[in-house]
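Let us work through a complete example step by step.
Step 1: write down the sequence.
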Amino acid sequence: MAENATVARPYAEALFRVAQAGKESFNLAAWSELVSELAQVGSHPEVQAYARNPKVSERDVIATIVSLLKSPFNTEAQNFLTMLVENGRLSLLPEIGAQFQQLKNSVEGAADAVIVSAFDLTPAQVAELIATLEKKFKRKLNPVVTVDPALIGGVRVVVGDEVLDTSVQARLQQMRAALVA
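Step 2: predict the structure and record it as tokens.
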């Protein structure tokens, strides 16, 4: 069976082309928000189970998903969702969302930055950290901040396939490796 990423790619690329050709009222940013929300709804196990239920019609699945969305929903999005449900590809929504975001980032010259901190960061601290990281990575970054007390202190930043780990936990692991060797 094909990997989800391989099967999702044509859907994400087609949806991205539609989003790029979109009107000002439904621009790339609006599409990005909608696709992100669709991915989040589509990844929910209860939604997946509901969609697989043979007693539920495709129209009911589509109506239920649309009712769960907060973002505006246009005709193209309706057609896209209908196609996914009819083809039994609703489970691909999270991967389609991730690939759509990657396409958007590449067009904008940006990247997602996953920041894991040992403590809650204030908006000012996040802004300062992002400014520093944008200079280091030489591109615009979209931060996603989470907290992991196991880091003890510092932050771990993942941008694409690059990792910058300045956490106390990482330094302790380095020291342990050096002492054991």
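Step 3: interpret the result. The longest strand covers residues 110-117.
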